[in-house]
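worker-03 picked up job from queue 'complexes'. Input manifest follows; two sequence lines, order preserved.
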Amino acid sequence: MNIFHRFSLKCLIGNKTRTFVTIVGIILSTAMITAVTTIVTSIQAYGIAYESKRSGDWFLNVKQTDAKQYFSLREDERVKEAFCLSCIGYADLEGCINDYKPYLCIQAMDTGFTEHMPIELTDGRMPENGNEILIPNHVFEDGGVSFELGETVIFDVGYRETEDGELLWQEQKLFVEENANAKEETEIVSLEHLNVREEKTYTVVGFYNRPHFENYYSPGYTVLTMESQEVIPGSYNVYLTLKRPSDAISMMREISGQGAFQIASNNALLRFYGVSARSDFMMVLYGMGGILIVIIVLGSVALIYNAFAISISERTNSLAYFRLLGRPAGR
Amino acid sequence: MSILKACHISKVYGKGENEVKALDDISFSAEKGEFIAITGPSGSGKSTLLHILGGVDRPTSGNIYLNESDVYAGNEEKLAIFRRREVGLIYQFYNLIPVFDVVENMTLPVLMDRRNVNNERLEELLTLLELKGREHHLPNQLSGGQQQRVSIGRALMNAPAVVLADEPTGNLDSKNSGKIMELLRVSNEKYHQTLIVITHDEKVALQAKRIMRIEDGKIVRDEVIRS
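worker-03 finished. Artifact:
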């Protein structure tokens, strides 16, 4: 240790209280800045984790699309991951007490879907092939129809069609005759029918909670199976995560501009990435964090500046003596 | 043999109306081992001359030669080396580093030069300056006289060619003043270093072999009082 280091060290030791206060000040300010940034990023991470668990880990959902569009989206360089749910068809839910939800909607997942979407099993296990199904609990709770675990069921599967032959999907509520006096309880007159195409046999391997991805107005209870396949164009429901969440809005506009597809964004999740056009959540969070950091930095600078100013004023004489005695340049 | 030579030294502070001529064309030389006292009233330019001789302050014009070498010809680093190795400075208020003990203060010029301390010389000086037993005392644990002795020790530690003292007894009582001057005289005789002392005190001045008087920045008297 040279004489100048020894001088600095002795000055520090000689002013124990100030040195201690300065060191504690620096540690505290560093800790507080770290704490604020950690809190902000933790809230963001918590929000992302919570929303991914609640509504699924996806940014964009392209509905009623086809396999061609699905594979095209998978190849898009902005897309990180793409997974889908394909509608195999509808089956009548015999004995259903909910007049507005008279069907089972059999949907096939791919592996990406099972990894990214919130499927909460309450009993049994996930289906492993196209012959096994998961039944949502609200089939019993809401529809009044029960199934047994391990039960083999046979469904007449087809598609919902209007009288004009137009296909109807889960996004379209039950197509019924509008009643002029809605408050009166009248019999529902359905304007759609199920065009049965085939008979399918499934084994019930599990039950799960009502999925977030099923709209309340959807006319079919979502029954899940594996092995997504394109039965007919429009049966694909594609979910996307992007490499850069900030691309979500522009990509959504771009796909909407193509006209043929319905598209939705997961705003609840995107707002935690600071992307959603409809939420200033992250801006407020970053703003609060920024204000706190500025306050901490100002406090720290004041503390350290004062400590150094006192220290320098005390050492000025000594530094002048060093110079008088021939302090080497640069020390 | 002339070791230190001042040639036409002038020093001007300020500009225009505020211009003050502290030194006005001063020339003199000092022999090796000579003991010179410089006297004069306050503001006459004594301390300015000492600072210029010691490489602390550059003259406005003129040259200082030490062993025929121009002190101010080099850059600041060379000047710093000159201050470390060739001169020893002693001040009225000691100018000791308050956080360093006696030994550290005395060896400061050597340590700044990144050289090893000559322990033999250190011991010799501690004995000469009667600082044995106080090696690890801090300045604030010493009396004024002891602090001035530490300052003298620091000035002598590097065995400089010239020792410059600015009112070395100005802050001391008569007993300590006498002791300090005796030490300076003894070291001057023992180590044959040129000693230049600035003083107001006639008794101090009379211990020198040569007395110079400065008034208004000029040497008005220069006489050898003892050979």
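worker-03 released lock.
Chain A has a mean pLDDT of 86.
Chain A is about 40% helix and 25% strand.
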